Amino acid sequence: YYKWTQWIFEILYRRGLAYRKLAHVNWCPKDKTALANEEVVGGLCERCGTPVEKRAIEQWFFKITDYAQRLLDNLDWIDWSEVIKVAQREWIGRSEGLEFRMPVAGHEGVEFAVFTTRPDTVFGVTYAVLAPEHHLVPIITTPDRRAEVDAYVARTRTLSEQERKIGERGKTGVFTGAYAVNPANGERVPIWIADYVLATYGTGAIMAVPAHDQRDFEFATEFGLEIREVIVPPAEATGYDPATRPPLQAAYVDAGVMVNSGRFTGTESVAGKTAVSEWFEERGVGKRTVIYKLRDWLISRQRYWGPPIPIIYCDDCGTLPVPEKDLPVLLPDVDEYVPTTTGSSPLGRVPSFVNTTCPECGKPARRETDVSDTFLDSAWYFIRYPSADRDDVPWDADLTRKWLPVTSYIGGPEHARLHLLYSRFICLALNDLGLIEFSEPYKRFRAHGLITKDGRKMSKTWGNVVNPDEYIDKYGADVMRMYAVFIGPYDQGGDFSDRDLGGMVRFIHRIWTLITTNQISGHAAPLSARQMLHRTIKRVTEDLEALKFNTAIAALMEYLNFIQKQPALHAEEARSLLLMLAPLAPFVSEELWERIGGKYSIHQQRWPEYDPALVALDEIEVPVQVNGRVREVLKVPADSTEEQV
Ligand SMILES: [Zn+2]
Ligand SMILES: [Zn+2]
């Protein structure tokens, strides 16, 4: 498998989708490895919770950013849980806006680009901010400001990107002594540096409009910078007089009417975005553009375990992929697996691994010593599954066509920005290369909920971990399984309770008693009983297909209540009940199936089908459920609307 994972790395490399660069990466000092942005949660290592640091290391990346727009667009048509789509849209972070250049006053030809999603506020710019790492900072800083600026830049280097984003330390920043020109009105505004502006996002510089951006408002308030209103609520636009306006208490971020905005004064601000952008474009000082928050996928890991990145460095020939015939590049046997403290890979300590010959010129050369992120392995496993016994190809075309893409995929919402995004990217790239025929890996994805205990996430800390084995030993796997899906809606989960589990034990016992103690009648059931049966089949069928296991079980419970009150148990009823129970309670249903003379195995029988004529009724019963449990059953005319019910 890891031979083919290395092969995928190489085809992406040849396609220009894998590259190496010196980068400030997230570094976990405890795990002693680099982390992808997706693996850093609130400034902490996702694996061990240690605060993440920044280190400059040569790293391999995949150009997932080339696919940002398509990863976004396809979310519109794939059938996925909304919670995952929302998380991916947020992570990809598309912004449409205006990019324009601000010349630096007194420096001929020196200018910097800024990006804004609010061109309608451009007349309200009262200062500009550069990221401390911005290349212009040393050039434009005035001599009297230099010491303070240098100290601030040095301090910023010790902070991780996450610490800078979180910004709990309050607003900090330093004036460079230089001024920029606002191309909207020709005004000079002071240029500051501040660590909340990141060199890696957008252009690494911002125009600041404190009246209409809360972060800028706080910064301007802290440092006594001008706050100039250029958008007001529509009701306040008529007779607007800056002299009589009370000072703003917070940024006004809503839409409104433009004021103090030259030729655009009086324009509605939403229309103003387009109008100002067009005006900048006409004058050749700006252009409309799109930016994304998504960064390239860092795949280098300085660990032992993982597929070695299949690259050879030759002094004469440069960077070369290992020839396909030499794959896989195997991990060497080593005594010491532990990562080093210096940031270099443990493989770097193994000369027999590092030293090799150049596949081009045959001279001595060195191997890459990083391994790839294990998320690369998991990004394509489903493509390998149908062809797992093929050694000669990564996947067989016919088998792949037969089995893929994945019809239905269930997983935890915590995978939204990691596995579920990475596997979509790999799929799109392989599709572009003509290697697979689908562009999205999973037709349907559903995020499952979480089962809690006493209202809390189960953890050793709280001592509330439920061990299913104990319950399986006591009640059997069927009861445990059915209770686990009955506990609440599948996408939400619920709270585990021994008392409620007891209810499931009794339900299974009642079915057992019904089937084993009744003589089964070979006659047809009366019409009313057949109607109830076919309505139940319809409900259970539809609920199971929609992963509504809890309401499917509730329907079976109602049905059991119904047939227990009937004078006789008929063959069609017993058979259908067990067939519907089979996917939920496979062991008990198999046993009971045998007892009513059913052919082995119940799991190889046809699913019962309902007769639409029996489902349509003069009067129907509407079960009222709360948290998946039936509280009441209403009888209403079959053609009732939802409101009438
Ligand atoms: Zn860690
Ligand atoms: Zn060479």
Measured between the Cα atoms of the first and last residue, the distance is 56 Å
Radius of gyration: 32 Å
Number of helices: 21
Kindly give the count of domains: 3
Which small compounds were modeled alongside the protein?
zinc ion
How many strand elements?
Answer: 31
Helix content: 25-40%
Major β-sheet profile:
4 strands, antiparallel
Predict the CATH topology of the largest domain.
Rossmann fold
CATH top-level class of the largest domain: Alpha Beta
**Helix-strand makeup class:** alpha+beta
Descriptive notes:
The chain has 645 residues and is of the alpha+beta class. The chain has three domains: 1-91 and 294-447, Rossmann fold (3-Layer(aba) Sandwich); 94-292, Valyl/Leucyl/Isoleucyl-tRNA synthetase, editing domain (Isoleucyl-tRNA Synthetase, domain 2, Alpha-Beta Complex), CATH 3.90.740; 456-616, Orthogonal Bundle (Isoleucyl-tRNA Synthetase, Domain 1), CATH 1.10.730.10. It contains 21 helices and 31 strands. The protein has a four-stranded antiparallel beta sheet with strand order 2-1-5-16. Strands 10-11-9-12 form a four-stranded mixed beta sheet. A four-stranded antiparallel beta sheet has the order 19-18-21-20. Helix 19 (571-581) packs antiparallel against helix 20 (586-595). One zinc ion is lined by residues 314, 316-317, 358, 360-361, 363.
